Amino acid sequence: MPELPEVETLAKGLQSIVGYKIVRIHFFRSKLRENIPTEKISKLVTGKRVVAVSRRGKYLLFTVSDGGKETTNVTLISHLGMSGVFCLLRQNKDSQKDFQSHTHFYIKLNKGDHSLTCAYSDPRRFGRLSFMEGSDNSLENHRFLKGLGIEPLEVSAEVLASHMAAKAKSKRAHIKGFLLNQGVVAGIGNIYASESLYVSGIMPNRVVSTLKTGEWQRLALGIQSVLQKAIELGGSTLKDFHHLDGQQGYFSLNAQVYMRDGQACEICGGTVKKSYQQNRSTYYCVTCQH
What we know:
The structure is a single chain. This protein is an alpha+beta fold. It has helices at residues 4-13, 38-45, 157-168, 175-180, 190-200, 213-233; strands at residues 21-27, 49-56, 59-65, 74-79, 85-89, 103-111, 114-121, 128-133, 272-277, 280-285.
């Protein structure tokens, strides 16, 4: 599943559509993981200009406006599920056969003499699409975003460490599962939880209430460094994840433990191990992590 770095990579790539007007949005189907309010979305966004493309947790946010004095912004909220991706195309064809397989909707965009098509494809159909009318502040009340935790790259390591320590107080959860809880830290999934714990020297099965202040600080720094590195490298090489240009990301080619079970630890030379927590694979080094 695309995590924070993959979604951030897409958000940055889609900045190029800011300023474009939505000519129309066409849906080939009205349901992915859940029903999509296709008619309402079409009515609200057609004719409006894209004023921002951003990210919250693992969600992509497309904000559009008609530019009027008493305008109310509309924000499309998209979750990529397991395999969703947006691609920018320079074509004017409209039938489904003109797009790659598993394309579920497309947005026609225009800016002066320039035209673009933003198409959403999702082979596994676990993605979600909804909308919110109102100011940026009201977005946090949408059911997709309500309750999401702190953004790990928008605060200092000290603030992130204090936040996690406060959330973990008196809890018996394992630290790996704790990091996957989107209500604690937004955007971290299985890949980056494993990598962050490795670089922080913390075993994934540690009970959160046993972590000391220094360990929370190391973990906060580890989370931020791993996420920043992944964003710089363009996201992870998941078999379903691609960038706007169709190329795969490549962070996992540089991963230190994720999917490297049986290989040598890059720090101590020991063997990277694999286990399962909450039915998810976990990778770690028994020597370097405690």
